[in-house]
Design brief:
The complex is a heterodimer of chains A (870) and B (164). In chain A, 71% of the residues lie in helices and 0% in strands. By secondary structure, chain A is mainly α. The chains are: A mainly alpha (870), B alpha+beta (164). Chain A: This is NMDA receptor-regulated protein 1-domain-containing protein. Chain A: TPR repeats lie at residues 389-422.
């Protein structure tokens, strides 16, 4: 307890102060605190409370410094430590806050509020072992409340002790009385209990509990009951110790549940899969017999649910050969005749099977012939013109997905001649052009679609994206303003709305345009969003338990733990690291980013003006907010600002400070470290980690990452280049102590046979991959590393243009960029050759030509509407 | 897409009104259907009229019928259907709709619908005649940039029932 004793009158005042704070009467609290401090100017707890009130009132710095002073006066007070923990929590410094709470608990060990706060922080920081102690402590203090029993069970479950969780749940089941029927919170608890039993393999008991509670009308969620039963019967069946009669009974019961589920929602594919699995059909390893059986079962649903397509779609996945053709034909005909625009994206994942791809192509080509307009036929008997139209639309997407861009465009043009008013045709044209390397034509085509229907969200979003792909950032924001708040710049509002796809595209665009500071800023903004997602779970720790939303809550914790496996996060992290590496390798990039001092009077003025405009654009909103809030402060002195540390204004809108960090490799390593184990199966991540580690001279780490990548794909071009890099580095370093050196040697030996020289290793690789452009590029990079004359390296790279070599557009771009990295005089020659090779593309045009194309692609004038007659 | 979408049935016709957002569709239709080009003011005027000017076949925009109100007359500026969708009585349905709308129109009551047809276009004239239009004269040199330059003036007098 506190070492400082107050007189009786002040003691009363102090409890009034605590009350005032609880009720958020901040000014009143401050007055009371001043009153106490007049008498006892050194009273630590009062100083802390006054400081806390001041932080709430927005006097953050003065408040915190007063709290620190107060703590020094009275380290024996739990109140002081509690106040300090609140401030740290407000700064999201959870580990430290937890320590302060622990100190407070040492002094006042049964303080329930503090234990509860502690338990929340322990959950948030995933310290389940100590969480368990807190939960048990809470139960001991308040054993008559259901929620604390659940709290202990949940903590055991989170700590991995499911058996003990079950013991508490069983016990609770025994003593709970008078629960009204259809109480959803109790129902959730029952489902949690069932889940726990299921995880322990107690399927029969789980089922008994579920059925009893369902019968007692305790459970509201009927589909959940049926799903649960179906699943449990399935598991009972596969348990070893059942006899045949029992098995049969369970199979029947499960079938009944699956049927019930399908009848309730015939569009859920999982239910059909469950039904089939129950019938003993393993969809992942089908035999001829089980295939026929599965198709037979699915066919039976057509009388039961004739309007649903879900089982028909599943049947397409299962069927093969003639049976597939027989099933897919009516499926396609029906969709195309009805004019279902999404039919192509519906069936395209069947294309992983080349024979299915061919069947679909043949069938739709046949449809095209049979429904194409024919002058001899009477219109009343001929097919609907829209049938023909959607067939062409399908075929265009089909050929585009196969990389046959000319053919796709040809089909689209005949469709446009037939019906020039269908926006989908222009959107698909845009996509084809984008894939073929003409981002400017893509923007133009998307603009045509927009003119036909300016309020289609999908078109507008795509239009923004395509403009970014064409490097037109401002023009993209112009379209996207349609979606954002009025009066706020689109980019700021889209950040507020956490539009990941937008931020990713903008980051990528800046990067492609070599605007590294802004690219980094965007990638970091993306990482910050994920950090916010993590923060946002905080409020749920208390809430979910209180409302016993246990199933969804446990699932959410798992989701939060996997956040960094999100592709957008990995993408942002990898590119952040790559940019740092780039800046480390070539520090002159940063120097060139700071514009030289302008000499003339005019240019200085112009520069200032531009700066002002840029500041205005980024700061406008925060300015507005600031103005508004300062006005409010004047009106309402008593307003609570909370404990959150205010976010400062962006004082680095161009990202120039950011890129000037003096430890780029450290930064890169930190970002990649945040991926934890999530990136370990991703060759891009492994390769980037390798690149950072080898520059940091952390050879063991580099070797480990390379081994991981090698295990996934030993022939990957990025792996090949790095094997040679590692071998050369290991051979040349001298400052590595012995045990490490032998580990490294062993690593290299595992990646490349010791007896083979690097030159031979490289030529063997080239022989193996002489028909793949990316393989040739990897081999050329290694040659360059091994000091082969540049002419030879160039000649090798030019072989990618010969017939028979598979050269994709992205390979060609990479080769071109590599040629300019090694300052090859033949880079332009390669560019021109690619321009001729990729006929539709515009990426291989010169800078000047591309500038013209960019200007033209959203020219507001329309050729169709100049002259006037009426 | 069409604002009034009903469950898909083959050969379904629906109508939609004109907005700033979809006016590009009308422009596109006019550019392929008619040999003349229209001014921005023309489009501004049709934005003002209340009739739904373009129509869909199976949710695809395939034709338009535009008119403007001049005093107590409705003047039909364009009626056209994309080639693959003709001979399905779609134009008739659209015209019939306009005639009905005109006869129900109050304040002002519409007395007459009129339009111009190029004198070389006998098919179009017969089409309108089958819907109760009749020739009211010839407008010499009506067209400035296409030949023949003369146009028939066709009209239909609207019968109104007793005031309700």
């Amino acid at each position: 307890m506190s070492s400082q004793i107050l007189a009786q009158k002040e003691r009363k005042l102090f409890s009034e102060l605590l009350q005032a704070y609880e009720q958020k009467q901040l000014s009143k609290g401050r007055k009371i605190a001043d009153q106490i401090l007049k008498k006892h100017p050194q009273h630590g707890e009062t100083m802390c409370m006054k400081g806390l009130v001041m932080v709430h009132l927005g006097e953050r710095e003065a408040g915190i410094s007063l709290i620190k002073d107060g703590m020094r006066k009275d380290l024996q007070s739990h109140i002081c430590w509690h106040v300090w923990a609140l401030v740290q929590k407000g700064e999201h410094n959870y580990e430290e806050a937890l320590k302060s709470y622990t100190m407070a608990l040492k002094i006042d060990k049964d303080n329930f509020n503090i234990i509860r706060e502690t338990s929340i922080l322990q959950t948030h920081t995933r310290q389940f072992d100590v969480l368990l102690e807190s939960r048990i402590h809470m139960l001991r203090l308040r054993p008559y409340s259901r929620v604390h029993w659940i709290g202990v069970a949940l903590a055991y479950k989170l700590a991995g002790n499911t058996a003990e969780a079950r013991r508490y749940l069983d016990h609770m089941e025994d003593f709970l009385r008078n629960v009204p029927p259809r109480d959803t919170e109790y129902g959730e608890l029952v489902f949690f209990h069932v889940r726990v039993l299921e995880e322990l393999g107690e399927f029969q008991e789980a089922l008994t509990l579920l059925d009893k509670k369902a019968k007692d009308r305790m459970l509201v969620d009927r589909p959940a009951i049926a799903e649960c039963r179906a699943r449990l019967f399935g598991k009972l069946k596969s348990a070893a110790d059942a006899d045949n009669a029992q098995r049969e009974e369970w199979t029947e019961a499960a079938e009944q549940s699956w049927t019930e589920l399908i009848d309730q929602n015939p569009d859920n594919q999982d239910y059909y899969k469950g039904f089939l699995a129950n019938a003993g059909i393993d969809l992942d390893s089908l035999t001829d017999e089980s295939r026929t059986k599965a198709l037979g079962i699915l066919e039976e649903f057509s009388s039961r649910h004739p309007k649903t397509n879900t089982y028909r779609r599943l049947a397409l996945k299962i069927a093969e050969g003639d049976k597939f053709k027989e099933l897919v034909k009516p499926y396609l005909e029906r969709a195309l005749e009805k004019g279902i625009p999404s039919i192509f994206s519906d069936v395209k994942n069947l294309y992983t099977d080349p024979s299915k791809l061919q069947s679909i192509q043949d069938i739709v080509e046949d449809i095209r012939l049979s429904v194409s307009p024919n002058d001899q036929v009477q219109p009343s008997t001929s097919a609907d013109p829209t049938y023909y139209l959607w067939t062409l639309y399908f075929l265009a997407q089909h050929y585009s997905s196969l990389g046959r861009y000319e053919k796709a465009l040809e089909i689209l043009h005949s469709a446009m001649e037939h019906t020039p008013t269908l926006p989908e045709l222009y959107m698909t044209k845009a996509r084809v052009l984008k894939r073929a390397g003409d981002s400017y034509g893509a923007v133009r085509a998307m603009e045509e679609a927009r003119k036909l229907d300016g309020q289609d969200r999908y078109v507008n979003t795509k239009s923004g994206k395509y403009r970014l792909r064409a490097g037109m950032i401002n023009e993209a924001d112009e379209v996207l303003t349609l979606f954002t708040k009025k009066g706020v710049p689109a980019n700021i509002d889209l950040l507020d709305m956490q539009a990941l796809h937008y931020l990713t595209e903008v980051g990528d665009t800046h990067r492609r345009l070599k605007g590294y500071p802004l690219a980094l800023k965007m990638y970091y903004a993306i990482q910050k969003l994920f950090h916010n997602f993590r923060e946002e779970q905080y409020d749920f720790h208390l809430y979910s338990l209180r409302r016993s939303m246990l199933g969804s809550y446990v699932a959410m914790l798992g989701w939060e733990d996997d956040l960094h496996s999100h592709p957008a996060y990995i993408h942002a992290a990898v590119w952040t690291a790559r940019i740092w590496i780039l800046l480390y390798d070539d520090p002159s990039i940063i120097k060139s980013l700071h514009p030289p001092e302008p000499s003339g009077e005019m240019s200085k003025k112009a520069l200032n003006k531009a700066k002002k405009a840029a500041r205005k654009a980024t700061a406008d909103t925060s300015q507005d907010y600031d103005d508004a809030s300062s006005q409010k402060v004047r009106a309402k002195q008593n307003e609570d600002k909370g404990l959150e540390a205010p976010t400062g204004k962006d004082d680095d809108p161009e990202g120039l400070k950011l890129v000037s960090a003096d430890d780029p490799l450290e930064q890169a390593s930190k970002v990649l470290g945040s991926l934890g184990e999530f990136g370990k199966d991703d060759i891009d991540v492994n390769a980037t980690m390798f690149d950072v580690a080898i520059r940091q001279k952390k050879y063991l780490k580099a070797a480990r990452e390379l081994r991981r990548a090698h295990a996934r794909d030993p022939h990957h071009p990025e792996v090949h280049v790095r094997i040679v890099q590692l071998a050369r580095t290991v051979a040349s370093v001298s400052d590595v102590p012995e045990p490490v050196k032998s580990v490294l040697d062993a690593s290299v030996a595992g990646l490349k046979p010791v007896e083979v020289s690097l030159e031979v290793f490289n030529s063997q690789y080239l022989q193996r991959h002489s028909l793949s452009a990316s393989g040739i590029l990897a081999s050329a990079k290694v040659s360059q590393m091994l000091d082969t004359p540049r002419e030879e390296v160039e000649n090798l790279l030019f072989t990618t243009l010969t017939d028979g070599v598979q050269l994709r557009l992205e390979d060609a771009l990479e080769i071109l960029s590599y040629l300019s990295t090694i300052q090859s005089p033949r880079a332009d020659e390669f560019r021109i050759a690619c321009d001729a090779r990729f006929t539709l593309s515009k990426v291989f045009k010169s800078e000047e030509e591309q500038a013209v194309l960019r200007r033209q692609c959203i020219d507001p004038r329309d050729e169709n509407e100049v002259e006037t007659v009426f | 897409m069409a604002s009034s979408v009903s469950p898909a049935l083959p050969g379904r016709v629906s109508f939609a009104s004109l907005t700033h957002q979809n006016i590009g569709t009308v422009r596109k239709l006019n550019s392929v259907l008619f040999p003349v080009k229209y001014s921005d003011k023309y489009y501004q005027d049709i934005l003002q009229t209340e009739v739904e000017p373009f129509f869909y076949y199976n949710d695809v925009p395939i034709g338009n019928i535009c008119c403007r109100l001049e005093n107590k007359e409705l003047y039909l500026t364009t009626l056209g259907v994309l080639a693959p969708y003709r001979s399905r009585k779609l134009g008739s349905q659209a015209l019939q709709r306009i005639i009905e709308a005109a006869s129900l129109h109050n304040k002002p009551q519409i007395k007459r619908i009129s339009l111009h047809v190029q004198v070389s276009n006998g098919d179009a004239k017969r089409f309108y005649e089958s819907h109760g239009f009749s020739e009211a004269g010839i407008h010499k040199n009506y067209y400035k940039k296409i030949t023949p330059q003369d146009a028939w003036i066709l009209e239909k007098i609207i019968e109104h029932g007793p005031e309700q």
